[in-house]
Amino acid sequence: MRLRLILVGAGHAHLEVIRLNSVMPLGNIEIYLISPSDYQYYSGMFSGYTEGLYDEDDIRINLRELTNKCGVNFIKKSASRVFPERKKLFCEDGAVYPFDLISFDLGSKSIPPEFVHSQVCSVKPNFQFVEQINEIRESSTPLVVGGGAAGCELALSIQAYKNNREIKGDVRIVTADKVLSSSSNKTSGKIKSLLERSGVQVWENERVSDIYDDYIETSFNNHIHHSGLLWLGGPIGEPIFQLSNLAVDEKGFAFITDALQFEKYSFMFGAGDCVTLRSYPNLDKSGVYAVRQGPILFENLHRYINNQPLQSYEPQKKALYILSTGGEKGLLLYGKFSHHSHQAWKLKNKIDTNFMKKYK
Ligand SMILES: Cc1cc2nc3c(=O)[nH]c(=O)nc-3n(C[C@H](O)[C@H](O)[C@H](O)COP(=O)(O)OP(=O)(O)OC[C@H]3O[C@@H](n4cnc5c(N)ncnc54)[C@H](O)[C@@H]3O)c2cc1C
Fold it and tell me: Any transmembrane segments, and where (predicted)?
């Protein structure tokens, strides 16, 4: 009898598993991808789309085409719960899928439960991105909550879009710490001055305490006017693992081993933002790690099926990030090193377009 593998979510690592299956098929196994959308949108190019440098088709992968080409079945649904003991996956519409092996790469969400979703735009799940950003970039005073890499990038890109089209008003950004707080003071100062020079108003060390239709209240009782709110306050786990009584960290991400397996269930694998490696609990939630996990996940699925010892994944010590800062310029970050130029943006554009070509 053929084994059944279910891939839940079309995150970076699963895209690679699907692609590799067309090069060296996993064997006598039927593979299903479950995804709530026909497309996977690539966050590395969100800033370029926002600014107007890329079209929608440039930043998304057609999952029906990819799975069809690679011998994988596609199911357009959202998974809601897994019952490991019964080896069954439940979807939001009540459909149930039995499996022999399962892997999760379903990303994260970003809006904390205390705020009502209708008041806030979110770029997660990522297939909502284009609709949300198209609306917010046209509005007069959009407010970005969160001063991490994603928040800074999108604030700069929305401002660049407005500047290029002479749309009145400025972008605002509010962050509980300083901007790019995980980088050095020098880098954080650099991005702050780039934000301010482009016309973005920055509030640092202020937390959002309440959200109203056209303003927010901060922890210092400041009222900041907005015409739309984009929440990028850091990733939170999707509820599926908690609902399934699996071991999760304080943000709801499922714990996995270095072999990318769930701790209690060796037939369950995971990769990307939705999981936390027990050996590296503080690793950033970032696409660069999810990408590197792809080939290891594929190899380990292959080895598991063939009863061979599994490989360990070890995250790179330093990761390269290039933030698009508007006007085809990029801020390259590598450890303590940072560099701002057109060349940095060109490199980012090359890395991102090459990534997309692999799956088109
Ligand atoms: C604006 C922005 C810019 C960024 N830029 C970068 C960057 O330049 N470099 C970088 O390394 N990181 C970047 N990141 C972070 C990066 O987006 C994430 O770390 C990365 O996308 C995580 O990849 P993943 O493989 O975990 O899943 P994702 O890419 O998030 O994909 C998960 C998929 O699973 C689907 N899914 C969700 N729930 C379910 C469900 N219940 N059932 C089935 N499918 C489901 C989703 O719809 C989605 O298609 C950026 C983030 C943002 C917001």
Answer: none
Between the CA of 199 and the centroid of ligand 1 the distance, in Å, is 28
- Give yes or no for residue 119 having a pLDDT over 80: no
From the options 3.30.450.40, 3.50.50.60, 1.10.760.10, 3.40.190.10, give the CATH code of 3-109+235-305: 3.50.50.60
- d(CA 120, ligand 1 centre) in Å: 19
pLDDT at 117: 62
Report which ligand 1 atom has the smallest distance to the Cα of 287. Answer: 11
In this structure, the residues whose C-beta lies within 6 A of any atom of ligand 1 are 8-13, 34-37, 40, 43-44, 46, 78-79, 105-107, 123, 125-127, 150, 153-154, 232, 238, 240, 272-274, 285-288, 290
Residue 323 CA: which ligand 1 atom is closest? 8
Ligand 1 atom closest to residue 285's alpha carbon, by position in its atom list: 19
Other CB atoms closer than 10 Å to residue 5's CB: what's the count?
Answer: 24
Mean pLDDT in residue range 153-157 = 98
Q: What angle do CA 128, 153, 179 make, to 5 degrees?
A: 120
List, as one string, the DSSP characters of 32-100.
EEEESSSEEE-GGGHHHHHHTSS-GGGGEEEHHHHHHHTT-EEEE--EEEEETTTTEEEETTS-EEE-S
Query: What sign results for the dihedral spanned by CA atoms 240, 266, 35, 153?
Result: positive
Banded model confidence at residue 328, pLDDT cuts 50, 70, 90 = very high
Pocket test for ligand 1, best of 33, 38, 43 (most atoms within 8 A of CB): 43
End-to-end CA distance of the chain: 32
Q: Can you tell me whether residue 23 is helix, strand or coil?
A: helix
Half-sphere exposure of 19 (CA within 13 A, CB side): 18
C-alpha 112 to ligand 1 mean position (Å): 17
**Fold (topology level) of 117-234:** FAD/NAD(P)-binding domain (3.50.50)
